[in-house]
Amino acid sequence: MNSVYPKKIQLLASQHWTPLHITEMAAEFLTPEKNAKILDIGSGVGKFCLGAAYLKPEAYFFGVEQRSELVSHADLARKLLGLKNVRFLNCNLTLLDFRRYDHFYFFNSFYENLIDTDKIDNKVKCTPALYNYYNQQLYKKLEGLKPGTRLVTYHTLEDHIPPDYQLAESHLSGLLKFWIKIL
Ligand SMILES: C[S@@+](CC[C@H](N)C(=O)[O-])C[C@H]1O[C@@H](n2cnc3c(N)ncnc32)[C@H](O)[C@@H]1O
What we know:
The structure is a single chain. The protein contains six helices and seven strands. By secondary structure, the protein is of the alpha/beta class. It has one domain (2-181): Vaccinia Virus protein VP39 (Rossmann fold), CATH 3.40.50.150. It binds S-adenosylmethionine. S-adenosylmethionine (SAM) binds next to α4 and β2.
């Protein structure tokens, strides 16, 4: 799967893009019904969405990503793979209405605001204040969704998830968590 991307993108995979075996488990949980619409919150070069769209052809996968260059890589990979059930949006997640989607995937997208090294690139502003702001925005958006909404978190702290999301499954010593909104 990494081979659909240029070398410089492949080199970022181990740290920044979801491995395929994680995608497989997450996609299974996130598609309880046919035609489910799933949003990857911070989709990078689209690796999660593309893998999941291949595995679940009856579901629709959407990625929102702030870096336009990564969205271009995602779109190119989508065309190479010939997948019809996946789309990428180039904007900040704060601008998106989450109520348009059924279920969500989140791979600790804001962490780069807390570190000085190992960033994807230096093209976006990263600060601890933005880390807090994005987490608050995400929390509010998740709070506003309907009961039954599913969420998969990977490498993400529990205190960023509203309390009405019940933990349904935990894998890999808690690195991968499956949640369902109960209220
Ligand atoms: C760890 S990568 C995960 C990529 C993808 N979800 C995957 O699993 O392969 C997180 C991505 O979130 C993006 N991101 C971070 N903050 C964002 C924001 N506020 N709005 C949109 N994208 C954001 C970053 O640019 C980065 O590409």
